[in-house]
Design a protein that fits this description.
Elements lengths: L2 H13 L33 H14 L13 H6 L3 H5 L1 H9 L2 H10 L6 H17 L2 H15 L3 E3 L12 E3 L3 H22 L5 H16 L12 H13 L7 H10 L5 H17 L2 H6 L6 H20 L2 H4 L2 H10 L6 H11 L10
Helix pairs in contact: 1-5, 1-7, 1-13, 5-9, 5-13, 7-8, 9-10, 9-11, 17-18
Length: 361
């Protein structure tokens, strides 16, 4: 696949991450949000400003070098995000897992500009998530605060019963359990597709990566006690969520999925077809069936061949082609240099601005 195709798929993957996240002031007691077999917090918990600021203080203490930011070049987070392919390959799976949560579909339908201006929506999400990943500590903190302001505006009520939520249930984006699920779909999927398209990760790398993702969670105000303790517990949590009855492909969810994977112009036709194929391959069978996705022998053969081509391609293709330009921009910042004209051009094409995490002129 070309870099343009991978970039388009990456945008689809990342836009999903913030479709839910918003809240408003309210003192009503939250309903129970049960996840069978887990000892984590299982009640809905709205993140207020005080909790949010406390978690930012935790992030500040865990990122001692302000120029490096939260993760840095030796982190597994940077390694897994430095290539386009894994996130692009996981775009469809993460998206469909997210919108199977009734709150996410409702938030998109009632509060997002996804249907009217998907490019702007994708770019906004890109900017915030990439600043959190690759920015300086101050840039990551500011991105978190900007997102918090946006998220505070979204609150609503479900129009019908869905999953374990009754009709009229209040939803908010700044709610711990819903935010953990949105985060979980991203990180679980990224590890899965990295191993499929690049190569295997050791158990140590997976554990390091999971511990790094907690910093990302803290930026949204999520407390440590609400998170699975380690990678193995995290995988158990993901399976428990899929088995809990919380997720459901409602008519509204199906309509949204059909729209997102539908016709969006000639340039997006094949990227979206491939994203849908990858989702069919990697979704749990019950959700694949619920979405009406097909994955027969011919599709299986094509998908497996594409993965083999990806693994070979990453061994022989120069990094300036396959690497995320924001990754390259951040590396240049750490060297005290301005990013190359080609990197700035790539960022401008993707995000509509020439720089994101490197202020050197």
């Amino acid at each position: 696949m070309t870099k343009a195709v991978l970039g388009a798929l990456l945008g689809l993957f990342l836009f999903a991450a913030s479709n839910l996240l918003h809240a408003a002031e309210d003192t009503a007691p939250p309903p129970v949000y049960a996840v069978p077999g887990t000892e984590r917090i299982t009640k809905l918990m709205w993140i207020d400003d005080a909790q949010f600021e406390r978690q930012l203080e935790v992030v500040h203490g865990k990122s001692p070098d302000p120029n490096i930011g939260l993760f840095g070049p030796h982190s597994v987070m940077w390694r897994l995000n430095r290539h386009f392919t894994p996130a692009a390959l996981g775009s469809g799976r993460a998206l469909l897992l997210q919108i199977a949560h009734p709150w996410v579909t409702a938030a998109i339908d009632e509060h997002s500009i996804t249907r009217t201006d998907p490019l702007k929506r994708g770019r906004n999400t890109f900017r915030y998530l990439l600043q959190m990943t690759y920015g300086t500590r101050d840039q990551a903190m500011q991105a978190a605060r900007d997102v918090r302001v946006i998220h505070d505006r979204i609150v609503g009520h479900l129009q019908q019963q869905a999953g374990t939520f009754g009709e009229g249930t209040e939803y908010r984006a700044n709610e711990v359990q819903a935010m953990i699920w949105v985060h979980a779909t991203l990180w679980e999927t990224l590890v899965m597709t990295y191993e499929q398209s690049i190569g295997p990760l050791s158990a140590t790398d997976k554990e390091r990566f999971y511990q790094e993702t907690k910093l990302f969670a803290y930026l949204f105000g999520i407390p440590d006690e609400a998170l699975p303790k380690n990678w193995d517990d995290f995988l158990v949590y993901c399976q428990q969520m899929r088995d809990s009855g919380t997720l459901e492909v409602t008519p509204a969810t199906q309509q949204l999925a059909d729209y997102l994977f539908g016709w969006h112009g000639v340039m997006m036709y094949f990227p979206l077809k491939y994203a849908k194929l990858a989702a069919s391959a990697n979704l749990p069978p019950d959700l694949r069936e619920a979405y009406g996705l097909k994955y027969g022998p011919i599709r299986q053969s094509f998908f497996r061949t594409s993965l083999w081509m990806s693994r070979v391609g990453h061994k022989v293709t120069p990094g300036f082609i396959t690497k995320n330009p924001v990754h390259k921009e951040a590396v240049a910042r750490l060297k005290g240099k301005r990013a190359s004209w080609w990197t700035r051009t790539q960022i401008n094409m993707a995000l509509g601005q020439k720089t994101l995490v490197n202020d050197y002129q």
